Amino acid sequence: MRRIAGWGIALVIALVVIDLLSLWPLCFGWYRVIARVGPEIEISYAGVATAVVCIGAVVIVLHWLARWLYGGLRLAPTRADWPETWRWKWTLCLVAAVMLMFVAGLAGVGVFRTTSWFLEMPRIARW
Amino acid sequence: MILFAGMPSLQLTDVAKLRLENISFFLAGFLLSAFLIKLLWNYLATDWKFLPRLTYGKALGLVALWGLLFVLVLTMISGARELMTPGAWEKKGATYKLAADAKSKAQERREQLERLKAALWQYANSHEGRLPPTQAEPSISAELWMVPDPSGMTYLYVAGRNQSAEPAAPLAFEPDLFGGERLVLCVDGVIRTMTSDGIAQALAAEKR
What we know:
Oligomer: heterodimer
Shape of chain A: extended
Order of helices and strands of chain A: HHHHE
Strand content of chain A: under 5%
Structural class of chain A: mainly alpha
Number of helices of chain B: 4
Helix content of chain B: 40-55%
Strand content of chain B: 5-15%
Strand order of the largest sheet of chain B: 4-5-6-7
Number of strands of chain A: 1
Structural class of chain B: alpha+beta
Largest sheet of chain B: 4 strands, antiparallel
Distance between the termini of chain B: 26 Å
Shape of chain B: elongated
Number of helices of chain A: 4
Radius of gyration of chain A: 24 Å
Radius of gyration of chain B: 25 Å
C-alpha cells in the first residue's frame, strides 16, 4: 500500500513538474510527429522487395557460416555441454540485433541533432 | 499553461514545441530500441549461458554508447568532407551547411513570401483593399501559407488589416525558424528582414 502511495506521489510530482516546465511536447510529442509525418510516407515496393531479398540472403549466409564455425568451436572438450548445432533462432536474433542497433544508432543521432537544434534556438520560451 | 496570483508562467514558442516533439520522437525510438535490445539479449542468454542478464538500465547504456559511436563516426565523416571541400561549408549555429544551399534557401524563403504577397494583394484588390480576415480564407491556397521548411509550419498572419493601414506594420512573417532574422511582409508590400524582438515591438506599438 505504501509502495503504491509512493508511486502515486511521484507521479503527481512528475506531472506538476512537466506542466510547470511545459514539457508535454517532450513526453507525448512523438505521437504528433507520427501523425504529421505518417501520411507523407510513400512506400517504395521495389525498395521493400530489395530489403526482403537482402535480409533473406544475409540470414541464409550467416546461418551457414555460423553453423560451420560453431561446429568447429564446439569440438574442444571443455565445450561439450554446448548445444549440438547452431540454431536458427540464434541467427535470427543476431540479424534482428544488427538491424535494431542500426535503428538505435539513428535514434541516438536524432536525439543528439534535434537537441542541438533546440538549444541553438534564439528564443525557446515566452515568459 | 497559465498560473495565476503572480506565479510565473512559461510558454514555449511554437517552434520550440515543434523541436521538442521531434526530440520526443527520437527519444521514444531510443527507449524502445533499448527495450527490444534487452529482450533479444535475454532471449539469447537462455541458450548462451556465458551472457549475463541485461537490465533495462544497462540496455539504455548500451544503446547510448552505440548512439555516441554513430555521432562520432558522422563527425569524422563531416570532418573529412570539410577537408576535401574547403570553403564549401558555412557554419550555421552548431552545425554546418553547404554555402550554396544556404544562399538558395534564403532566396527560396523570399520567393515563397513573394508568392503569398501576390495572392494577398490579389485578394485585397477584389475586396476594396481589405486583406483576408483569416488564414483559412478559401481563395488563398493553403500551400501559400506554408513556410519553405520541413517543419510544416505556416507564416504568422496579422488578420483584419487593410492596405491603408500603417505601411510598415507587419502583415505576415516567418516563425522563429531560421535563426535570428525573419522575413516580414509589411502592409506596404515590402518584405523586410526583422529580428523577433523587432517584430514583437512593432506589434506591441500598434496595440498601444
